[in-house]
Amino acid sequence: MNASARRRPTVKDVAERAGVAPMTVSYTFNHPARVAEATRARVLATAAELGYRPDSTARALRSGRAGQLGVVVGEHLSYLFDDPQAAQFLAGIAEVCVSEDLGMVLIPTRGDASDVDRVLSAAVDCYVLWTTVADDPVLAAVAAGGRPAAIQGGPAHPGLVRIGPDDRAAAAAVAAATPLAGSTPVVISFPLDRRRTGGVRRGDDLPVDLTDLRAVPFPVTGARLAGYRDALTEAGHDWSDVRIAVVERNQRELGEDAAVALLETLQGPGPVTVLAMSDELALGARSALGRTRRKVTITGWDGSREATTSGVWSVAAPLREQGRACARAAVSGVPEAHEVPWSVVAPEGRPEGGRPEGGQPVS
Questions:
Q1: Confidence check: pLDDT of 53 > 70
Q2: C or N: which end of the chain has fewer Cβ atoms within 10 Å?
């Protein structure tokens, strides 16, 4: 094959073969209503014969639209496919992209100086942001960039639409649904800071101030810890003495390791209530605690079938719906927050009777 045969066909090639002006070819693809039907059909047939396709980059420059939604992710990209709830969130976004004829671009951030340029240079029309921290410079950059954006769970930021449940109320409700008064409570927590420092701490030794949740780097973590604290204090426990295992990432094996570490801090064989911030962490804890003779109650988060049929109490606030809500808000550009309904789900998948105050049925 010679060089001319390998050359990509151009607008001029199509125009010459079809016997029209190059502008007519351009209008055929970009403003078809301006071209007579017979001429448009001839141009399209010629383009197909030559294998011509419009340059998507040039089209985006002309129209001012890229036809893409950007998903800004503060986790490893593999997490989006390994974690079942992350996959649900992306599936919800994808549903909206399909209905709106948009592509989806995954934009990872690493917590370094290159993040802002990477996000702002992406050829996208709007953004959905996920798993970031309050002091992330990407938030201000996106908010000031003029393209609409929604963020799941927070942090709240002027110019960004926040989509998510009332994490504090839901955490308090799922904790209160368990036999707290007669057991020793422990917590398996998401990361508290950008460094994702792990380890076991006490309630009075956390590097965050739960009296000012706006100051907690990961707002979802802060809100859920505050909710657990509310329920434990109401049940008569001293929050300052509660053991909290912080994990680096939402992975089942880390939940198992955290449960083992927490057990080593407990005295006596009494019952234990484990408050885990996800079903994946709860299932990991269940695997570890199943090897003990303690009476154990475990809570999670996500309302997954696997968790509730494994004896785990959970909070259902479907991430697929949150993904849809984020994408709809980003695509529409309407700056209205959306409060996601949640409910406490008992083991075996039975909705918790006498819904706790603040809880809502899952639609």
A1: yes
A2: N
- Domains belonging to the chain, first-starting first, are 3-54 (1.10.260.40), 68-164 (3.40.50.2300), 167-316+342-349 (3.40.50.2300)
Location of structure tokens 């340059």: 55
Lowest mean pLDDT among 19-33, 122-136, 226-240, 291-305: 19-33
pTM: 0.78
Query: What value, to the nearest 5°, has the Cα angle with vertex 258 and ends 250 and 253?
Result: 50
Return phi, psi of residue 27, to 5°: -65, -35
Closest Cα to residue 186, out of 239, 234, 242? 242
First to last CA, the chain: 59
Contact of 164 with 323, CB cutoff 8 Å: no
Report which secondary-structure segment, H or E, holds 57.
helix 56-63
DSSP string, 319-355: HHHHHHHHHHHHHH-----EEPP-EEE-GGGPBPSS-
Backbone angles phi, psi at 298, to 5 degrees: -130, 135
Which token pair is 269? 């064989």
pLDDT tens figures, 109-143:
988 889 999 999 898 999 999 988 888 999 999 99
Q: Which long-range contacts (CB under 8 A, 24 or more apart) does 73-77 make?
A: 73/106, 73/107, 73/108, 73/109, 73/130, 73/131, 74/108, 74/109, 74/111, 74/130, 74/131, 74/132, 74/133, 74/136, 75/108, 75/130, 75/131, 75/249, 76/108, 77/106, 77/108
266 φ/ψ sector (left φ>0, alpha ψ -120 to 50, else beta): beta
